[in-house]
Q: What sequence folds into this?
């Protein structure tokens, strides 16, 4: 059974295999591998490469960058919001990523939404996105919002089915993106109990 966890160096090998499977395709929910520095706001920027991530120390730095992004006080590029990056795993195998953006900018309201996700090609159509989305909706409820915005491309039938399966209510389409509002899932478990 897959689950969501915080990024961790133990998944280095399978993360890199998944990176190769994606073969350069856009991976919503996984974050950028490079961001330019902006000294005016104290953001140092970063650049990661596939070759660099094969080095254990560089992969640990990558994990630290991903985990730090959820902290409101962390420096970030202009226009970016705090974001909790999570990995979808089964045992020691990385299957994909899902991200929970803590607030909406104008662009995220129009196009990106609160939640983005991607599943590696060999792990698709096995229910991993649905499982991860349900778990992230529980996490979102702990953070406060009663509903979140999730978008998908008009022609992405699989993502559309995942969102609608989670109770997504279609609002409209804008610039090729279907926009859904999804109610978060309140639980009685202690905060953070599901995420390693």
A:
């Amino acid at each position: 059974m897959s689950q969501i966890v915080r990024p961790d160096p133990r998944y280095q090998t399978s993360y890199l295999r998944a990176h190769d499977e994606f073969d350069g395709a856009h991976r919503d929910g996984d974050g950028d591998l490079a961001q330019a520095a902006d000294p005016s706001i104290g953001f140092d920027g970063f650049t990661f490469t596939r070759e660099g991530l094969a080095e254990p120390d560089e992969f640990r730095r990558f994990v630290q960058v991903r985990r730090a992004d959820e902290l409101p006080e962390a420096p970030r590029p202009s226009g970016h919001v705090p974001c909790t990056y999570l990995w979808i795993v089964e045992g020691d195998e990385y299957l994909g990523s899902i991200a929970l953006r803590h607030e909406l900018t104008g662009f995220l309201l129009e196009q990106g939404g609160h939640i983005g996700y991607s599943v590696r090609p060999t792990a698709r159509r096995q229910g991993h996105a649905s499982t991860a989305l349900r778990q992230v909706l529980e996490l979102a409820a702990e953070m406060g919002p009663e509903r979140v915005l999730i978008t998908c491309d008009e022609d992405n039938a699989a993502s559309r089915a995942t969102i609608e399966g989670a109770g997504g209510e279609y609002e409209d389409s804008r610039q090729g993106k279907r926009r859904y509002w999804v109610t978060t899932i309140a639980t009685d478990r202690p905060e953070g109990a599901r995420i390693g």
Summary: The first helix runs from residue 12 to 22. The beta strands are 3-5, 34-35, 46-47, 83-90, 93-101, 115-119, 147-153, 169-174, 177-183. The helical segments are 12-22, 50-53, 56-68, 106-112, 128-143, 157-165.
